[in-house]
Design brief:
The chain is of the alpha+beta class and about 500 residues long. It contains 13 helices and 17 strands. The strands form 3 sheets. Strands 2, 3, 4, 6, 7, 8, 9, 11, 14 and 16 form a 10-stranded mixed β-sheet that branches. It has a 5-stranded mixed β-sheet with strand order 1-13-12-15-10, with no helix packed on it. Helix 1 links the parallel strand 2 and strand 3. The N terminus and C terminus are likely disordered.
Length: about 500
């Protein structure tokens, strides 16, 4: 089958180099196991049993769920990106709740409505074609957890208990096993009326993305491109997202290395299933506006517990006391470190500029290419960022400290200095995670701090309340359904990311 024709404008922008189209195979092809073992994306076609027996539509789901209130992302009509985390300096939008029937009615109204401009206070830009248009119905994107693992068993929502029996669970379990994953962690439903996108991000778990209705176009980037894509700082509410939400419309004056990233494109149609390994970056578009779009995610659980350094990368931000104890970022040890750091004038260290035009770029990537796992590099980077922020007291000071290490300034610090001792510990911990040499550690430090990503910082400051789908927030006070989808009131604030550091 030839590649589907995609509409012009916003797709296939020349900023991103595409290596090739993602592989497509029949789901029964024996070669599929190789993709699973290698952690390489592949599109499964010709009736994959994960979804071949599901004949879902909004009408059918309305019958199943009745009047049950379900979470729905709401964004202004002209703001097509759905970040799942909303607030000033984050995504523009809110999370509401409604029945499937109400959701379907709102989608139908939106099809005949007039497009509108983005909400005030947005840090993102609306598509050019939306400029000057009147307000209309907002974009809606349904996100519902259908099944989840608990206590060694999988539980399901009662409304879809029988429907999910049509999924070939033994096939899924075998596929996860071949890939070296654990059992099912969760199954999640996504539904919209097309025309929206999910900004560039990665997930820490592998999953199968099964397309039930409509089409999705997925632009994928290997984990080795992680620091060409400028992740938000660790501890930021969007720290698994890129600061470049759409890699095909990047501001290369701020994010020059995006021009060196090479993407892999996949287009999935009804009945197709995309194998999406953990830590692969992906930007997801729904090219057909006004066409019902429905997908299921089948998320894999972990096959083994996290080791200490992986835990510091994945969980350290949410368990600060334990992480602080590990690094000595508390009490007299931290006071000694801060005093030593202040005497070193680390702030005078220039930021590493490693945009694509610089010769050091290829040296950096070739050094990291020797590391067996790009995911290890990402873990090591996250661990180092969080440790530096803990010891230095804020994200910006931590970034300043890592800038100094990237410039090898610590080699000139006094040997008994607390900052020098911590610098050595950071380098040793990175080497342990990636299994790399001093050269590879230096390359990773340069990648982490490139182009002022951490200091002075490229992320916009966060202010006010934050609403997060990942945290399970539902903002019932949001006025989003009348077309005015401002970021709604949240019940709690993020504390891991130090907003005060942005003003230093």
């Amino acid at each position: 089958m030839g590649a589907p024709t995609l509409p012009p404008g916003g797709f296939g922008h020349p900023i991103v180099r595409q290596e090739h189209r993602a592989a497509e195979r029949s789901w029964a092809d024996e070669g599929i196991d190789g993709f699973l073992r290698r952690g390489e994306p592949v599109v499964l076609k010709h009736g994959c049993p994960l979804c071949s027996k599901l004949r879902w539509s909004l009408c059918h789901l309305g019958e199943l769920f009745g009047k049950a209130e379900l979470p729905v992302h709401v964004t202004p009509r002209a703001m097509r990106s759905v970040t799942r985390v909303y607030g000033q300096g984050l995504g523009v939008g809110s999370i509401s709740s409604m029945s499937i029937d109400d959701f379907a009615q709102q989608l139908e109204a939106g099809c005949s409505g007039v497009r509108g401009t983005a909400s005030a206070g947005s840090t993102q830009t609306a598509p050019p074609q939306a400029a000057g248009e009147e307000r209309g119905q907002p974009n809606l994107y349904l996100q519902v957890l259908l099944a989840w693992a608990r206590g060694g068993a999988v539980e399901r929502r009662a409304e879809v208990q029988a429907e999910l029996d049509r999924v070939d669970w033994p096939w899924l379990q075998r596929a996860f096993g071949v890939a070296g994953e654990g059992g099912l962690e969760a199954c999640q439903l996504w539904c919209s009326n097309g025309g929206v996108n999910t900004p560039l991000h990665y997930d820490g778990s592998s999953n199968f993305l099964a397309q039930l209705r409509g089409r999705k176009r997925v632009l994928l980037f290997h984990p080795r491109h992680s620091f060409r894509l400028y992740p938000y700082p660790v501890g930021h509410p969007l720290d698994n997202y890129s600061m470049v939400p759409n890699p095909e419309a990047a501001d290369l004056s701020r994010f020059p290395a995006v021009a060196c990233a090479q993407g892999v494109e996949a287009v999935i149609e009804p009945g197709d299933v995309l194998w999406l390994p953990a830590y692969w970056w992906h930007y997801v578009c729904q090219p057909d506006e006004g066409v019902e779009n429905m997908s299921l995610n089948f998320w894999a659980g972990r096959a083994r517990p996290l080791n200490q350094l992986e835990w510091l990368s994945c969980r350290g931000v949410s368990s600060v006391p334990r992480a602080a104890q590990f690094w000595g970022a508390a009490g007299p040890a931290q006071h000694e470190f801060l005093a030593a750091l202040a005497a070193l004038q680390v702030e005078d260290t220039p930021p590493a500029s490693l945009g694509c035009a610089h010769g050091k770029e290829e040296d950096l990537i070739s050094a990291l290419a020797g590391v067996r796992s790009s995911a290890r590099c990402l873990h090591a980077a996250r661990m180092a960022e969080h440790a530096a922020a803990l010891m230095c007291g804020s994200s910006t000071r931590g970034g300043r400290f890592l800038e100094a290490l990237a410039a090898d300034a610590d080699a000139h610090w006094p040997g008994g200095n607390a900052a020098r001792r911590f610098a050595n510990r950071i380098r040793e911990a990175i080497a342990e995670v990636i299994g790399g040499s001093d050269r590879e550690v230096a390359a990773l430090l340069a990648a982490i701090t490139r182009d002022g990503r951490l200091y002075p910082g490229l992320a916009p400051p966060i202010a006010g309340p934050v609403v997060s789908a990942e945290r399970g927030d539902v903002d019932v006070s949001s006025p989003g359904l009348n077309g005015d989808a401002e970021a709604g009131a949240a019940r709690c604030q993020y504390s891991a990311y130090e907003n005060k550091s942005q003003a230093e």
